[in-house]
Design goal:
Shape: elongated
Number of strands: 25
CATH class of the largest domain: Alpha Beta
Radius of gyration: 24 Å
Strand content: 25-35%
Helix content: 25-40%
Bound molecules: MU-OXO-diiron
CATH superfamily of the largest domain: Ribonuclease Z/Hydroxyacylglutathione hydrolase-like
Number of helices: 12
CATH architecture of the largest domain: 4-Layer Sandwich
Number of domains: 2
Structural class: alpha/beta
Length: 396
């Protein structure tokens, strides 16, 4: 991406990564991503807000040169993760006079992960400022979105808030600002689910601090900027609220068809009772789609055959992920088939310790389902409907 002028003295100089399909060797990126970096030219000093992934270092350096940055005074680091900090060493080499400005925790992480020498840093605390002459940067420490050292930077005179990962989306797009909210919403929700959801109890505090500022533009470090910040701020408020939807995720694996038949039967029984259902074959699903539905589903049903003595490894993976992401789920249960025994239910339940869920009566059967087994699944569907109907946090 070539540099783009946002306003007088303010440029977008980062990179679009159209082709990246996996983050952290874990998170699918079906729509690619971007690493946004912003250059601010003040009357007395020039600052760069965050950098880019190491693979895009050449793009960033070329962009800085092409808009005539001969001297760079400051590199503001809002987050030490390498997709934003990885090019800092190259920037410091290209601009030997530049100092990295960040909080103490972020400084320590940058020293540890990127081996940046301590004398290249200026530390700033919460509420402190940095003057660029006619422009002022204010630092807002915002820990745990999603690392402990994260912060926002607020450009006071322009009412622009640089939030790094927070409020971002993994979306490669040529749009500098959100143009199509329907396109951005799923990307932002997926991003929230995969990255921010484990910190949903901390996020409201950060949203409150943002609400106290005048913010015209939210500029995250992934995806397009928001010139209508309420779009993303309202979405986050909903995602972190205690409310869940009248929705059940049926995540299944089947080896010889028995558990698959049970999952299908239960899904149909729930639909008959007016419940929204999302069914995922765990051997084929994009795990990011599952994470996105975990944001507001009320109930998770793990459907797994018994392999040796426990759940199928694909079900273990999904269970581990659901537990790690700490969604708002209210209820969970296990259904499935076994050949001769096992401890599947105990093992799955034992992996859900992070979740404040009520475990509903499981339905584990021997072999292929029979009439009595279907009756047990109907009873489970009745129980789920009753729980949803009576639960004040479930939006019917
Ligand atoms: Fe986009 Fe946490 O890095």
């Amino acid at each position: 991406m070539n540099p783009r002028k946002i306003r007088e003295g303010l440029y977008s100089v980062g990179a679009i990564d159209w082709d990246r399909r996996l983050f952290d060797e874990l998170i699918p990126l079906p729509k690619g991503t971007s690493y946004n970096s912003f250059l601010i030219k003040g009357s007395e000093a020039t600052a760069l807000i965050d950098t880019v992934d190491p693979a895009k270092t050449a793009t960033l350096l070329r962009n800085l040169k092409s808009i005539g940055v001969e001297k760079l005074d400051y590199v503001i680091s809002n987050h030490a993760e390498q997709d934003h900090s990885g090019a800092i060493p190259a920037v410091l080499e290209a601009y030997p006079e530049a100092k990295v400005v960040t909080n103490t925790k972020c400084k320590n992480m940058l020293m540890e992960h990127l081996l940046i020498p301590e004398d290249r840093f200026i530390e700033k605390g919460d509420g402190e400022t940095l003057s660029l002459g006619d422009k002022t940067l204010e630092f807002i420490i915002a820990p745990w979105v999603h690392w402990p050292e994260t912060q926002f930077t607020y450009l006071r005179e322009e009412w622009i808030l640089f939030t790094c990962d927070f409020l971002g989306s993994h979306l490669a797009t040529s749009d500098m600002y959100v143009k199509d909210e329907g396109e951005v919403y799923p990307g932002a929700k997926r991003y929230y689910a995969e990255i921010m959801m484990p910190f949903k109890h901390i996020i409201p505090k950060h949203l409150d601090r943002i609400a106290a500022l005048d913010v015209e533009i939210v500029a995250p470090s992934h995806g397009p900027m928001y010139d209508n910040p309420s779009f993303i701020l309202d979405a986050y408020k909903e995602w972190v609220s205690p409310e869940v939807k009248n929705e059940v995720i049926v995540a299944y694996v089947t080896m010889h068809g028995s558990t698959g038949k049970m999952a299908e039967y239960l899904a149909d029984a729930l639909i008959d009772r007016g419940t929204r259902v999302k069914v995922y074959d765990l051997t084929a699903t994009d795990i990011g789609e599952l994470a996105m539905d975990l944001v507001d589903a009320a109930t998770l049903v793990l459907a797994t055959p018994t392999v040796l003595i426990g759940p199928h490894p694909s079900a273990v993976y999904a269970t581990y992920l659901a537990n790690a992401l700490k969604p708002k789920l209210r209820y969970a249960t296990v259904i499935g088939s076994y050949g001769w025994g096992g401890k599947t239910v105990e093992m799955v339940a034992g992996m859900l310790g992070n979740l404040k869920v009520e475990l509903l009566e499981p339905v584990m059967i021997k072999g292929y389902p029979t009439e009595g087994d279907y009756a047990a699944l109907d009873k489970l569907a009745d129980e789920i409907k009753k729980k949803h109907d009576e639960d004040g946090n479930v939006k019917i």
